[in-house]
């Protein structure tokens, strides 16, 4: 009941010229019906021996043609109907009155409440005038039938309008829901792709590099160190793959705050420094002793550190020194990672560029900046984020 009242209030507040356009099928059906009525009316007048007056014929034909206008512009059609009804009232023609009453439902379905009310007032005035006007021939029973037809037609039009509005609302809600689901799916795919990229670009890179070391060296200490690194990276990769499979099966929440990450920035730095030093690279770290960051900047910076360490191992095999520095200034955190790799050296591992692209997107969303470029002295990665991200 509340919904019905709400629909009626919305209908009553609609602008005067607002209307519901008929659908393609309804328009075609209306035009066919009007054409059939015009043909039948013409045949009837041609065979009734001139019993119908010219004025009545003009009013009836005008009313029928006005109904056809509902296929394009219902408000214009209603105004034409009002003009025809006023003309019939002045001329004292009552024959098309029943047809005018039947059209009330079409008016209420397509037009605003104010325009529908105007039409109903005109229709009632026409009906009263025909009853009160002597010699017209409209009997009280005919007036009652006409009134009942107009009421039934009006209520039917309002009921159809209510269902039409509800269908439109449901369609809009469904469309919004589909967009939301599509956005959620895209977001989940991005998260899964990020996780898979981290696995492939990080742990598998370490496995590949240390496997190459095993092929080139006979030193027992180096081989033991590489075997340990391969075993640890493989175990971590299997753990991460199981976690990603849990995401795909819906066993884990995919919201960003639930994506597993190192416990702290210090933990991420320690892990990356260990991997770089195991590859024979000297690492200098310049980070404040106590760095407290919100979760979003923390996760973003951890991804930068992991991605940069992986890229040094994959694409900067000539690097001998890596510098990692972090500063917190004026409610912003700044991270800078550099290496001294020569341009021509690479580990020969494939690169998609996905990690750099996703990091740029992530920092842009957080209102920060990210840049990775080749300088004469080596690669330089710089990132900045507001602490309120």
Question: Can you walk me through this structure?
Answer:
- It is a single chain.
- The protein is α+β, with helices and mostly antiparallel strands and 389 residues long.
- Among the domains are: 2-138, no CATH class; 263-389, 2-Layer Sandwich (Heat Shock Protein 90).
- It has 12 helices and 5 strands.
- The chain has helices at residues 2-12, 24-47, 54-68, 74-91, 97-102, 104-110, 113-132, 140-216, 220-248, 265-278, 295-315, 354-365; strands at 282-286, 321-329, 332-339, 369-375, 378-386.
- A 5-stranded mixed beta sheet has the order 1-2-3-5-4.
- Helix 2 runs antiparallel to helix 3 and helix 7 packs antiparallel against helix 8.
- It is rod-shaped and about 120 Å long.
Summarize the structure.
With 389 residues, the protein is of the alpha+beta class. It is 65% helix and 10% strand. Strands 1-2-3-5-4 form a 5-stranded mixed sheet.
Defining key terms:
single chain, 389 residues, alpha+beta, Heat Shock Protein 90, 5-stranded mixed beta sheet, 12 helices, 5 strands, 65% helix
How helix-rich are the residues, as a percent range?
A: 55-70%
Structural class: alpha+beta
SSE string, helices as H and strands as E: HHHHHHHHHHEHEEHEE
Average pLDDT across residues? Answer: 79
Radius of gyration: 39 Å
Q: Specify the oligomeric state.
A: single chain
- N- to C-terminal distance: 46 Å
């Amino acid at each position: 009941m509340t919904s019905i009242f709400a629909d009626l209030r919305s209908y009553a507040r609609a602008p005067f010229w607002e209307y519901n356009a008929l659908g393609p099928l309804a328009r075609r059906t209306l035009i066919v019906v009007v054409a059939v009525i015009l043909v039948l009316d013409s045949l009837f007048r041609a065979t009734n021996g001139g019993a119908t007056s010219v004025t009545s014929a003009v009013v009836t034909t005008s009313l029928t043609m006005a109904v056809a206008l509902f296929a394009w512009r219902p408000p214009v059609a209603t105004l034409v109907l009002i003009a025809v009804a006023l003309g019939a009232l002045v001329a004292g023609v009552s024959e098309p009155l029943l047809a005018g009453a039947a059209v009330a439902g079409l008016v209420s379905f397509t037009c605003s409440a104010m325009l529908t009310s105007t039409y109903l007032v005109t229709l009632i005035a026409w009906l009263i005038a025909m009853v009160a006007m002597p010699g017209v021939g409209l009997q009280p029973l005919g007036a009652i039938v006409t009134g009942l037809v107009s009421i039934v037609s009006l209520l039917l039009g309002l009921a159809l309008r209510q269902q039409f509005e509800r269908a439109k609302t449901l369609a809009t809600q469904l469309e919004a829901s589909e967009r939301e689901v599509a956005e959620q799916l895209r977001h989940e795919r991005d998260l899964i792709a990020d996780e898979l990229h981290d696995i492939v670009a990080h742990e598998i890179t370490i496995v590949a590099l240390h496997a190459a070391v095993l092929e080139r060296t006979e030193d027992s200490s180096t081989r033991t160190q590489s075997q340990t690194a391969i075993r640890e990276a493989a175990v971590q990769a299997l753990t991460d793959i199981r976690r990603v499979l849990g995401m795909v099966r819906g066993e884990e929440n995919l919201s960003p705050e639930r994506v597993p990450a190192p416990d702290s920035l210090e933990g991420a730095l320690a892990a990356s420094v260990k991997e770089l030093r195991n590859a024979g690279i000297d690492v200098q770290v310049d980070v404040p002793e106590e760095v407290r960051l919100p979760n979003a900047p923390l996760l973003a910076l951890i991804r930068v550190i992991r991605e940069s360490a992986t890229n040094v191992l994959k694409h900067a095999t000539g690097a001998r020194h890596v510098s990692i520095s972090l500063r917190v200034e004026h409610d912003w955190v700044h991270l800078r990672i550099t290496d001294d790799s020569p341009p021509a050296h690479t580990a020969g591992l494939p690169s998609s560029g996905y990690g750099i692209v996703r990091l740029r997107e992530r920092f842009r969303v957080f209102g920060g900046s990210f840049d990775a470029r080749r300088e004469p002295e080596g690669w330089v990665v710089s990132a900045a984020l507001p602490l309120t991200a």
